[in-house]
Write a structure and sequence with these properties.
This protein is of the alpha+beta class and 117 residues long. It contains 3 helices and 4 strands, in the order H-E-E-H-H-E-E. A 4-stranded antiparallel β-sheet has the order 1-2-4-3.
Length: 117
């Protein structure tokens, strides 16, 4: 994704680890068939985007990040929305029946200072 400034990189690393761990935890029961978790990173001139998708049972109908998030997603929301000024969307991969989850995190890019000296 190119260079990322330190003030953005550290929280994004925590967010990525938390979302991947969350996807594996909820994608399938421990004794179930193989789980698929897909991670995509993208950038534009003004944004960085992380997309984490799994093939698990999906988010419950009516799920709200503000109301239903556990500790991990609350930490993710704090870093992304409050600290980095970004956004998070959570939706099912398919709606009928609900299946899989896609979480997309988008944050604004900050300029990386040039090395001195």
């Amino acid at each position: 994704v190119g260079e990322i400034d330190g003030e953005t990189a550290m929280p994004l690393a925590v967010v990525l680890v938390e979302l991947v761990q969350n996807a594996f935890q909820h994608a399938a029961p421990p004794a179930g068939p193989g789980e698929l978790v897909e991670v995509r990173l993208a950038r534009t001139a003004s944004t960085l985007t992380m997309r984490i998708a799994d093939d698990g049972p999906g988010v419950p109908e009516g799920f709200s990040l503000d109301r239903d998030a556990g500790l991990g997603l609350t930490i993710v929301r704090t870093f992304v929305v409050h600290d980095l000024g970004g956004s998070i969307t959570i939706k099912a991969v398919s709606a009928d029946p609900p299946r899989g989850t896609v979480i997309e995190v988008t944050v604004p890019r900050r300029s990386v200072p040039s090395p001195v000296g």
